[in-house]
Protein 1
Amino acid sequence: MAMTTVGRRVRFRDLEVFSAVVEYGSMAKAAAHLGVTQPAVSEIVASLESAFRVRLLDRGPQGVAPTIYGNALLKRGLAALDELKQGLRDISFLADPSAGEVRIGWPESFSELLSSMVRAFCVEHPGIALRIDHLPIPSGELPELHARKLDIALTRVHVPQFGDEFNVEILFDDPAVIAAGANSRWARRRRIELADLVDEPWVVTPRETLTTILLEQAFRENALPAPKLRVMTFSVQLRAHLLVDGGFLTCMPRSLLHVSAGGVGLKELPVRLPPHTFPVAIVTVKNRTLTPVVELFLERLRVFVRSNAARF
């Protein structure tokens, strides 16, 4: 069948339904999510398979899964759906340049760092809504971004990390440091060796994260026993409270030194770590046109980073 004929038979709604079926792995679950009947979903999938003359889904007792043809359609179909949605958002912006939505993903640790920038942006652009989702452990996949659920992701980069489908713009380097509460006995020391900290309790992010990997590497390279990782958490505030109130130590990105607990801040300790870089980057999907409001947010973010270079 000619592609022009297929194009006349396939609707954007069909692609939306097919995408939901693959996402939920079940026609019944997709129907419930979309608010339609299961027979209606089955009919749409059958019409797509008829139009392309290939099987798009493998059916089994555990549900459905896309075939190689289904995966090909899903990859292009998501992009087509996204471009249509982006077009609608562009039209809304042209009709009202002061309104729109920006969908951002970043680790929870960035929220305090960028809170003043977010507040200023909202004051300056009251008609633009920001949806900010916390990303899980940094990885090179970023499924939320790949699925077009986010416009941009802000994440720490472990090079080489991201696939060819992403654009990566480095914002700043955020090296790891050893830190303690500003009122800690260690904060008053001008010279500290890693060996001095062997018996100290540590609060860190989980072992698979970059800062904790670097910390354990530093102890190994100095032929020292492994650090005592007493608490592992992504919570910035919990780490800050344990540093200030509990006498813990941590390995953390330098940008987080501005965090405080109970009015007491944190302090970088004079401890040498292995050479490293922990760049923070803006990540977007290649060949995806960003809406004007997203571009506006990105420009404000770049300006904020440049004007606060001393904090990063």
Protein 2
Amino acid sequence: MVLFLLQQANKLANCAIYALRQSVIWFGRSNFHPEMVKNELQTELKENVHYTILHSQAGQSVLHKIAENFNAYQEGVSAFFRGENPIKPKLPHYRKKDGLHEITYPLQALKKKYDENGYPLLGFPLGWDIKKLYGEGMHDIDYIWMPYPTNINPENLVEVTISPQNGDLYAVFVYKTSSEIKALNYELALGIDHGVNNWLTCVPNTGKQGFIIDGKQLKAFNQLYHKEVSNAKTGKPEGFWSNHLDRLTGKRNRQMHDATNKAAKVIIDYCLKESIGNIVFGWNKGQSQRISMGRKNKTLEYSLTLRYQNFATITTGELKERLKQMCTQYGIRFQKTEESYTSKSSFFDLDDFHVFGERPESWKASGKRTKRGLYVTALSFHISSDANGACNILRKIAVNIGISLSKITINCCQILDRIYLWKRSRITEAQRKSTAACC
């Protein structure tokens, strides 16, 4: 029954996409307003057979989702013409025939009861027309029941979304939480520079050493996923997909989601412990579309593919948004700044900053990166290149947010603690050599 409802939601979504595509094609984007479009879609499709099969609020959630997608398309096109987005987006395409679309039920549409053993059950309502399709047997069935999570207070529940992902169905519970706002010092800040092997390099302006959130494990998960997908597609026609690939993708997505949440929690816990009131995240506009593969990687096609697997598929953008959400929850100010030339400029030599594409030809950095991960200042101090980038990210926005960087010393940027998101297996050097010899 749940699959049938998700199929009907998918067909309703295609009806909404058709209506909005025709509106954009014939009348342009100038009259497109999100709230107005949501109301017009509900008025136009309220008699649609797919809409009436779903509960009214579940059907509205599908239409609202499509309207938001078209609103994002409009904003993307506007950003393209303003020069902020390097790629012009295309109109949202129709969804796959006989596919599944997620549906959301708000709290007022849900119902709760207890089974004969006293365990709580959560009921999802059905639409009126579904009883007509299934005949007499459906007259006494008004809800689809599922076990209710015992770790969520029913009074805090906001909505539940049933979402199909990689061959599985997920129930996503949204609920309210109450967090105690701790007293923070808004003269303190944590600069974050993101990368690959060193996924997040964090340096505070408190005078204490920074830390690195390891990205090698995340990179290994990505490489293994792409390798298994490539092996499964070998000798198959273009566009091939299978249940096995669905399971692989689902596992990989869960790993990325787990890494995002763990990394965000590490950073937030550190800020709360040190009473840091600002997080400054280095991020360039459209950087996911402008991936620099590097001089070394341009020689071999294999290296290009490997570099893409290492960088483009790591969910740093999702982590940034997750951090932003958690900062709002705990009263931390989240700042985002562009990071042009933060890796080349020397923080301790106070090199000038320039926006990407506006650097004078005569400009030259005082220090240089002698090898991977190592930066040498003008006075020959050896520091972490990623720590130098994190410090420069702080320096770019220090005046605007009113923070001092005088406590950051050479020692703060030389030896950084490395934090692993997953526990590493304890293998001795002899065991490692033995395993390598066998392979």
Protein 3
Amino acid sequence: MTITEVRVSLRDDAKLKAFVSITLDDAFVVRGLKIIQGKDRRPFVAMPSRKKKDGEYQDIAHPISQRMRDEMERAILAAYEQEKARAKAEELPKVPEPG
């Protein structure tokens, strides 16, 4: 299974840094992944989940193998860093061209 697309939607929140959607094999989309700022200041990927009646959260989609989880995290966090860099570059004031 190959991750063929990662879409990142940045958020300006203390903990929630982005929502993510991934496409697998150009055929299956998983929405609702989140990038959360961890207590150790490192971001991590949270799988889509729902809140149960007892207040606990349960993943509704998640990788079964550690290898796939690692691959997903690498791809998602790389796309997140690229999107942050792109957003930061767009915030820079435009320098007028001489002329």
